[in-house]
Structure formats: structure tokens, C-alpha cells
């Protein structure tokens, strides 16, 4: 029997429905790590098909979030050392279909379409404040036009992030 009829190739063993659907859909995986005082990778929004805790101990957690192609999600990647924040980046992404080419970003496999990215504390703080403003206004971050994030990306990178009000990132200035 072939794979379409529920049999594995050449082996004849039964293939579960989840194995067949996993082959048909390439999931985008986000590995979020939290280490107290050193690293905090977190999913800000998104509708994962699966969230799996990989490791949990005092002051340390690792989780895997899986998203379908076309699903939108945002992540916040923060690192610090004894002297303070050393790296802070945020991304708004969409998962891609198998074979599509996108951008490589940390903690995410495979490539994704990046709608917005920040670099540094000032841009990241401004983005997070803008995101909170959108949520308070009832904007559906998962279904709004992707151009909202793309336009905000260009406004963010064309501004003095440390002196810009969050509402300036929106299309209606």
C-alpha cells in the first residue's frame, strides 16, 4: 500500500494520521528559552498548533511553539550579562509553506517571512509599547493586514526610537 492509504513507504507498517499530516504541513518551530537573569525568549502573540515544554527547572525553562504555514506570530529575544542588557530584538513573522524561501532568524526553524524586526533596547521598547496600544484598541494582531507591521517596521527604523511615541508607528498619525 502507498502512503496515501495509510502505509509507510516500503515498510508496510501503518502510519498514524498525525504522521501523515506532519508530512503534509511544514510547521514553523520557535524554541523559547528562559534563564533567570540571562535570557528571556518569549512568544508575544500567535496561535500555535502545539506548545511543548522541553525542559523545566528552577530558573530555567525551554519550550517549543509550533505554527502552521501562514500563521502570524511575534517573538521577543532578550539577553543580558552582569552589566545589563546585551541584546534585545523583536520579530513579527509569518510561517512559510514547504519550499518557500524566507529569512533566517534566531530560535526559529525553518525560514520565515519577517514583517517587522527591532534591534536594540529603544526600538524594542517602542515596538512593545506600540503592540500594547494596538491590543488595547482591540486590533486583531493575527488577522490584521501584514502591511500594518511592514509600515511600522519602516517608521520604526526611520525614527529616533528613544524619542518616538508608540502611536507614531501606526498608519493614522
Structure in words:
Mean pLDDT is 85; it is low at 1-20. The longest helix is centred in the last third of the chain and has 16 residues, at 121-136. This protein has one domain (3-169). The N and C termini lie far apart (61 Å). Strands 1, 2, 3, 4, 5, 6, 7 and 8 form an eight-stranded antiparallel β-sheet that branches. Helix content is 20%, strand content 36%. It has helices at 17-24, 121-136, 147-157, and strands at residues 28-35, 39-46, 50-57, 60-67, 72-81, 84-95, 108-109, 112-117. The chain is globular and about 40 Å long. The chain is α+β, with helices and mostly antiparallel strands. A hairpin with a 2-residue loop joins strand 5 and strand 6 (84-95). The protein has three helices and eight strands; from the N terminus they run αββββββββαα.
Amino acid at each position: 500500500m502507498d502512503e496515501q492509504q495509510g502505509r509507510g513507504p516500503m515498510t508496510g507498517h501503518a502510519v498514524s494520521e498525525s504522521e501523515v499530516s506532519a508530512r503534509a504541513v511544514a510547521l514553523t518551530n520557535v524554541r523559547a528559552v528562559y534563564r533567570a537573569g540571562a535570557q528571556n525568549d518569549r512568544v508575544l502573540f500567535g496561535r500555535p498548533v502545539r506548545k511543548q515544554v522541553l525542559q523545566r527547572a528552577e530558573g530555567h525553562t525551554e519550550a517549543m511553539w509550533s505554527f502552521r504555514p501562514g500563521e502570524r506570530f511575534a517573538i521577543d529575544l532578550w539577553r543580558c550579562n552582569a552589566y545589563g542588557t546585551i541584546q534585545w530584538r523583536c520579530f513579527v513573522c509569518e510561517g512559510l509553506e514547504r519550499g518557500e524561501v524566507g529569512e533566517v532568524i534566531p530560535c526559529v526553524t525553518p525560514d520565515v517571512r519577517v514583517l517587522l524586526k527591532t534591534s536594540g533596547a529603544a526600538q524594542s521598547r517602542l515596538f512593545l509599547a506600540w503592540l500594547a496600544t494596538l491590543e488595547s484598541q482591540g486590533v486583531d494582531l493575527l488577522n490584521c493586514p501584514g502591511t500594518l507591521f511592514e509600515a511600522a517596521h519602516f517608521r520604526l527604523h526611520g525614527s529616533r526610537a528613544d524619542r518616538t511615541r508608540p502611536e507614531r508607528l501606526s498608519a493614522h498619525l
